[in-house]
Amino acid sequence: MNVKQMLAKFDKNIRLSIDEAESLMDYIMTSATDKEIKIFLTRMNPKEVTAEELAGMAISMKKSMISINPKVKGHLHDCCGTGGGGIVINKQEP
């Protein structure tokens, strides 16, 4: 199944399998154009994402992770957010 067919499933509220969701996210993360990413996000927004779809997309994203080994004492936590919250605490003033 190609990307267009998978995205068309969203319009019909048809669920993706784990493998389909993984393949779709692989494409989004490696080959998609800005326009295709916009279409993906627009079609995902109103849809209720299933556990299988979320798992497939997470599997895909984990393939792009990199490990780091910083030399720090104690624990190191990554506290980044997803953005879009409207609150800016590190804004740079001109």
From TrEMBL:
Keywords: Glycosyltransferase, Transferase. Residues 11-64 form the Glycosyl transferase family 3 N-terminal domain. One of its GO terms (molecular function) is glycosyltransferase activity. Coiled coil: none annotated. This is Glycosyl transferase family 3 N-terminal domain-containing protein. It comes from marine sediment metagenome. The lineage of its organism: unclassified sequences, metagenomes, ecological metagenomes.
